[in-house]
Specification:
CATH topology of chain B: Alpha-Beta Plaits
CATH superfamily of chain B: Dimeric alpha+beta barrel
Largest interface: A-B, 22 and 31 residues
Distance between the termini of chain A: 56 Å
CATH class of chain B: Alpha Beta
Number of domains of chain B: 1
Helix content of chain A: over 70%
Strand order of the largest sheet of chain B: 2-5-1-6
Radius of gyration of chain B: 16 Å
Number of strands of chain A: 0
Order of helices and strands of chain B: EHEEEEHE
Number of helices of chain A: 21
Oligomer: heterodimer
Structural class of chain B: alpha+beta
């Protein structure tokens, strides 16, 4: 098989994996999760073997048939409780099983899977790995690479989640009304985290980054399809992801260097995605007055995405949104962003007051953002020496390779202007 | 084209004492049959039914639980297919997988009033 073909197969498998796992869990129960995932994996391995000899005309249909056959194969292998077994011990029961392979039922199963993966009884730090594996069909290797974790760590997280699912007896359902709002919030968070992993990742491998962003967008669209789980926050989340994703291609130079907003080639921004983002943000209006930080982030992203040049950016509007965001969700990152806006507006004094109001440790592993912004402030007031000190601190605490190179480059320029 | 209901009568695989392997084989045939009809575009709908039956009967609306018929007469489910004639449906029903297990297919035309 040729290279692009392999990529396509990978992509197809990833898409089909989540579907098959979700359908089979619906039939055999979450208790069989691990065996189900193994079985689906087997199906792909045998598919690859068969396809090497003769690729099918319609690979998707081929895989669906394989999954159906796998269902009855699993019947003998899995321990299924009596209640489930009586449903599947007649020929006509296949009529009901066939239903589950229809598009709308697959979507329903996948929604159940998303809500299950975001169950509050599961450890939050494990949820992204689990979602990427069981919903999105990423391999352990891909997850490790995308999340910058060791493969062993990913394996441990997956095992822990599976054990928790078993021991806590979580049901494979979309929660009822009382629990829905809270769970939906967690679902949005997990999707948002998958997206930011892709968008801010230090990986130079553009493919895996696009896959992560694309998967986050796909999941959020899936959630918006169903009226019961549709929400203003969901639309705001979709909006901000689309608008950000539109810039993905312009964020890295051909040699893998990070390009900041000011220097990005705006003609590379993908307009159709920006349009989807704008439409999604308009859709949130039907759900007012409920707002989330996603609303503000989307509004801000949209201002950036639609201003013709960096200089023409409507900083006042952006600052106002950060302010409102901070009132609702006090957060040190928002303060840093507000300071950055003030520096753009040449209101240096306000900027430094904002920065002095927080402690860099509050930003945890993104502490370098604070020092980077401090450096910008000192550059703005022509204090190169102090700017250098802060830049060096920023370089010391940044872990992301692309960000580090960006800062190093910036440092190089300061020396020259001395 | 007219619509017909194929009603499937027969015992459950459990009652028949089929081994898991035999059950798997039968279900494989059912899947294949459903896929074939689906691909031909003649399949309109279908449902599988649980075996336990409750009947409400008489002026007193007496409620009683089954079984009311021999287990080989129990309806396991139905498919609705469109076909030119009942003969064509008989042809379609040749693929029903459970004849050798004592199962049978009952074919009935669905009454529709808005057709000529």
């Amino acid at each position: 098989m040729t290279k692009p073909n392999e990529e396509r197969v990978d992509h197809l498998f990833r898409q089909q994996y989540g579907k098959m796992v979700a359908i089979l869990i619906r039939i055999f129960g979450l208790a069989n999760l691990e065996l189900i995932e193994d079985a689906v994996q087997d199906t792909f391995i045998s598919a690859l073997k068969t396809w090497e000899k003769k690729p099918p005309d319609n690979p998707e249909a081929w895989l669906t048939t394989a999954a159906k056959n796998r269902t009855i194969d699993l019947l003998r292998k899995l321990k299924v409780d009596d209640q489930r077994l009586t449903k599947i011990n007649t020929g006509p029961s296949t009529i009901a099983l066939q239903e589950l392979f229809l598009d709308h039922e697959i979507e329903d199963s996948q929604l159940r899977m998303i809500f299950t993966a975001c169950h509050p009884l599961l450890t939050p730090v494990d949820q992204i790995s689990f979602a990427l594996k069981s919903i999105s069909g990423f391999t352990v290797k891909e997850i490790a690479s995308a999340l910058l974790l060791k493969e062993d760590t990913v394996k441990k997280r997956l095992t822990r989640t599976r054990q928790q699912i078993k021991s806590t007896n979580i049901s494979f359902e979309i929660p009822n009304k009382q629990d829905l709002t809270e769970r939906l919030e967690r679902v949005h968070q997990v999707i948002y985290l998958i997206f930011t992993e892709g968008f801010h990742s230090g990986k130079k491998d553009m493919l895996i980054r696009k896959d992560l962003c694309g998967e986050a967008i796909r999941l959020s669209k899936l959630i918006l399809k169903k009226p019961m789980v549709r929400s203003g926050n969901g639309y705001a989340l979709l909006s901000l992801m689309c608008v950000h994703a539109a810039r993905l291609d312009s964020k890295l130079s051909p040699t893998g260097e990070l390009i900041d907003l000011k220097h990005q080639d705006r003609s590379l921004w993908y307009k159709p995605l920006i349009d989807i983002g704008r439409a999604a943000l308009t859709n949130t209006e039907a759900y007012q007055p409920a707002v989330s930080s996603y609303h503000f982030e989307a509004a801000i992203a949209l201002v950036h995405a639609t201003s013709k040049t960096f200089e023409e950016t409507n900083w006042d509007f952006i600052f106002l949104n950060y302010q409102k965001m901070y009132e609702l969700y006090p957060n040190p990152f928002t303060i840093v962003n507000m300071a950055i806006v003030k520096l753009q507006q040449k209101q240096n004094q306000t900027a430094i007051e904002l920065l002095n109001s927080i402690k860099p440790e509050q930003l945890q592993q993104r502490e370098y953002l604070f020092y980077g912004t401090m450096a910008d402030y000192y550059l703005a007031i022509d204090n190169q020496a102090t700017a250098l000190v802060h830049l060096d601190t920023a370089i010391k605490c940044v872990s992301n390779e692309a960000e580090k190179n960006y800062l190093l480059k910036k440092r190089g320029k300061i020396k020259l202007s001395k | 084209m007219k619509d017909f209901m194929m009603i499937f009568l027969g015992e459950t695989y459990e009652e028949l004492g089929l081994t898991p392997e035999q059950t798997q084989e039968q279900m494989g045939k059912w899947f294949a049959w459903g896929n074939k009809m689906g691909a031909l575009g003649i399949l309109k709908e279908g449902h599988a039914l649980h075996a336990p039956t409750t009947r409400v009967v008489g002026a007193e609306r007496t409620v009683s639980d089954g079984p009311f018929v021999e287990s080989k007469e129990i309806i396991g489910g139905y498919y609705v297919v469109s076909a030119e004639s009942i003969e064509k449906v008989v042809e379609i029903a040749q693929d029903y997988p459970d004849y050798h297990l004592g199962g049978s297919v009952e074919i009935r035309e669905i009454i529709v009033f808005d057709q000529a």
